[in-house]
Amino acid sequence: MSNQLEYRHLIYFLAVADELHFRKAADKLFISQPGLSRQIRQMEESMGVILFDRDNRNVSLTKAGEYLKKELKVNLNALDDILNQAKRINDGIDGNLNFGYIGSAMENIIPELLVKLRNKHPNIHFRFQEMDNLNQISALQMKEIDIGFVRIETIPNELNIQPILEDTFSLVLPLKHHLSEQNFTGLKQLQDENFIMFDKSYSPSYYQKIMEIFKESGFTPNVSHRTIHSSSIYKLVEHDFGISIVPSSLRTGINEHVKFIELKDISQRTILSAVWSKNNRNPMLSKMLEFISGI
């Protein structure tokens, strides 16, 4: 990088790259539009690269600009983490760990890990974001989270994955449904029912596994509703909009308005895994991974 290029140029570039409008970017940065235009020209001249195509009406990124925007977002997030970590150390805080998770991971796995980690590192600070599987993968790649808890089988090469819980599936039924653990013989008994499913976007591999269960039972389900939240599934089942199949761990802490039948005799299982970037140097992540390896 040229010595003439400063941190502020990167911030100015990202503002214009996000807005694709110099006046809006200038307003966002609280500087004048001519001043912003001058800073961008200075950056381009310093780099010897054209970052924007512009005319009187439109602004767009060049190929070089698109690449720079993508890489800066990742690496400036990492720089922010470094600066924040230094501040936390100065303030006497052990560190910071950002979690992404799907709902079922919060039922037992994450709370147990947090208790163990905080007992050893009482000053650690946690931040949590409930996210679907694919958004967690994206957030890990962008270094927005340190670790994710997912139900997914295929991950990008730059990530590590470790299975931590194998789970059975369970039927979710309204309390008044005629089937119970005593008279349930197989899923085929429910072929005429409406099913409420986790949306395919929740996890394509998880969705495929659920469809395999139906295929082995000899029918294609009538799917009446799709959602990414288990709480929505339970509410819909409770009010007779259909029935569902969920990981058995999602039974924990559920109210008494639905009932469950564990599908013990099917071969399919769902795996909850921890996922993290191979390049993440957060020291608190390595501490968390020590506890995960002991599960």
From TrEMBL:
A single MF term (Gene Ontology): DNA-binding transcription factor activity
Keyword Transcription regulation attached: yes
Domain HTH lysR-type per the UniProt entry, residue ranges: 5-62
Cellular component annotations (GO), alphabetically ordered: protein-DNA complex
This protein's name: LysR family transcriptional regulator
Gene3D superfamilies: Periplasmic binding protein-like II, Winged helix-like DNA-binding domain superfamily/Winged helix DNA-binding domain
Superkingdom per UniProt: Bacteria
Family, similarity comment: Belongs to the LysR transcriptional regulatory family.
Keywords: DNA-binding, Transcription, Transcription regulation
